[in-house]
Amino acid sequence: MPTDDAAVAHPPGSATLRTIATIAGLGVTTVSKALKDAPDIGEATKARVRRIANEIGYRPNRAGVRLRTGRTNVISLVLSPHEELISFGLELIYGISEVLRGSSYHLVVTPHFLDRDTMAPIRYLVETKSADGVIFTRTSPDDERIAYLQRHGFPFVTHGRSALPEPHAFYDYDNEAFARMAVERLVTAGARRLALLEPSPALTFHRHTVDGFRAAVEAYGVSGEILAGIDLDTPVDAIVAEARRIALGPDRPDGFVLPGDVSAAAIVSAFQAEGLVIGRDYHIVAKQTLPILGMQMPAVGRIGEDIRLAGRELAALLLRAIAGEDPATLQAVEQPDATQRLRAAMQPVG
C-alpha cells in the first residue's frame, strides 16, 4: 500500500483527487467526501487527507467545481481608488482576507472609478456569474446597486446603510455619533467657530455626519459651518488650496471636524504654511483609520474607526448571506466609543 511519504516526492501543481487517493490508499469518493468535511468520514481520515492535499499542493479545479455546484468560490470587493481611501482599502482587504483564509473563498478586488457608472461592475458580476457574492462601499440613500442585486437574488453586503425600504445586509460606522463626539471635544478644547469637511452629498454617511454635527453645535451654542466648495472626495491639492485661503480669512474657524486621515493632514499642512499652530490657533478632531495619523501629527484629536474590523464583519456577514440567512438579521453598526475594540483609540485634542 502506498505511504504518505509519496506525497513528498509528488510534483506540486498537478495533483488531483486520484493522486491523493493513491497516496492515502483510499477511494476517490472517500477523499472527495473528506475534503468536503462529510459527517460519515472519520476525523482522523479527514485530517490525513487534508495533510496530504496540502503537502502535494492540491487545489480544486474551479471550473469543475463551478460546473458541478454553480459556485465560483469567489467573493468580489468593489472598491473605488481614491486618495482618502488608500488606507481604507488596504485595511478593508486585510480584514476580509482574515476571514476568508479559513474558507474555500477567494477575494477578487473589482475597481470602480468615481467618474464611471456605479452599476457597471455590479452588472458584470451578476451577468457573468463571476462571483458568489459581493461587498461594496460608498452606499447612497437610494442606491440602485442594492435594488438591482435584490431583484436578481444575488448575495451582497454593503459598507454603509441606505434608506431603501427592503432590508439588506450591511455593516456601518455611526458617523452621527462621531460628529457629535468630535464637536464635544472641540468645544472642550475652547473652539467656538466650528467647521465640518462634509462627505460627498451623494453618500448616506453624509447625512449622518451632517446631522450629528448640526445637532451638536446647536446643543453647545457654538457656530458651525459646512466648508464650501470642497468635500471628502475633493483632491488633496484642492483641499490644501482652499484651506490656505481659509487660513488667511478674517473669520477663520478655530475648530475642524474632519472625517478622514488624509483631509486632516491636508488642513494641517495648509495652516502650517500660513504660520498657524495647531492647539494654539485652531483645533482638529479627525476620524482615524490608521495609527500613522497620531504618529505624525500627535496634536490632532483622533476618533478611531476600525476598518480592519469592518472588513472582518463584512466578510462574515456575506458568508451568512450566501448561506441564505435573512438580510434583516445581517446588520451591524460600529460605535466610535468602543475604544476597547479599536487599535486607534480616541486621543486628546491639542
Task: Please provide a written account of the structure.
With 350 residues, the chain is of the alpha/beta class. It is built from 14 helices and eleven strands. The chain has helices at residues 6-9, 17-24, 28-35, 43-55, 62-69, 86-100, 120-128, 144-151, 175-188, 204-220, 236-247, 261-273, 292-296, 307-322; strands spanning 74-79, 106-111, 133-136, 156-159, 170-173, 193-196, 223-226, 255-258, 283-288, 301-304, 331-334. The longest helix has 17 residues, at 204-220. The relative contact order is 0.12. Mean pLDDT is 85; it is low at 338-350.
Radius of gyration, Cα only, in angstroms? 25 Å
Poorly predicted ranges: 338-350
- Number of E-type strands: 11
The largest β sheet comes out as: 6 strands, parallel
H and E order = HHHHHEHEHEHEEHEHEHEHEHEHE
State the end-to-end distance: 73 Å
Q: Helix fraction? A: 40-55%
Work out the strand percent: 5-15%
Continuous helix count: 14
Strand ordering within the main sheet: 2-1-3-4-5-11
- What's the mean pLDDT score? 85
Overall shape: it is elongated
Structural class: alpha/beta
